[in-house]
Amino acid sequence: MNHTENKDVCLNCGAPLDGSFCAQCGQKNISPRLQMGDLFSDFFTHFLNVEAVLPKTLIGLTVNPGRVAREYVTGKRIRYLNPLKYCLILAACFMLLNAALHIDVTGGMTERLDTFQSQSQSQTEFIGAARKLILFTFSHLDKFLLLVLPLYAVILFFLFPRSGFNITEILAFLLLVTGHRFLFAMLATLLSLIFPWLLIPIRLVFLYVYFAYAAVVFFDVPPVSGTIKAFAATFIYIFMVVVIMFLLLIVLLLSS
């Protein structure tokens, strides 16, 4: 059997070959038979590609997230991880970490509610309903914020109409920034093991301050007006998500 390169057609798509790579699908001109070296070569090629872009993505999003997102949406994509992949991987890691460590995502709010001594049946029912609302909101907030991220993109699209970016490009910016916020959230979670009261303050700082910093650079707007618009967009977005979650909770309680 011939183990040399295939010289006639691409083994992936069947297009005629002219050179080392297929002009139709981009696959490398390879041997028709898989060899041991091919397994290791493919593995290390993909591994080293991730290794090369991961540090640039992490450092870039830490130092100047707006510039990284702006470069990505304007065409410089090979140097950074895909926004959707980056965000989903870090979101999954964050949720797994919380589940493994049994973190109190409410920051002790439910425990403080449990310390109240109710004087009547109505107060007991109110405290119970408040506890359910807080626990439901904080337990599922990150999931809802991620699922309705396109809504955030629409809000920013109308608040920054002169940016020239479309909704998809703004969504790519949000995926990169949100993914990195999940990384900061994991660090905050680990710190909360020592200082439980730090969990919510740290996450709020990165939710507003980090995002505002990124938005000013990405949309290329003056710092003051850009920060105000970024804060407004974040407030509107979270308010709408909480309202949606509150309505969903009411439906669940009524149906139970």
UniProtKB/TrEMBL annotation:
Keywords: Membrane, Transmembrane, Transmembrane helix. The keyword Transmembrane helix applies. This is DUF3667 domain-containing protein. The keyword Oxidoreductase does not apply. Pfam families: DUF3667 (PF12412). It comes from candidate division CSSED10-310 bacterium. The chain crosses the membrane at residues 86-103, 144-160, 172-194, 200-219, 231-254. It comes from the Bacteria.
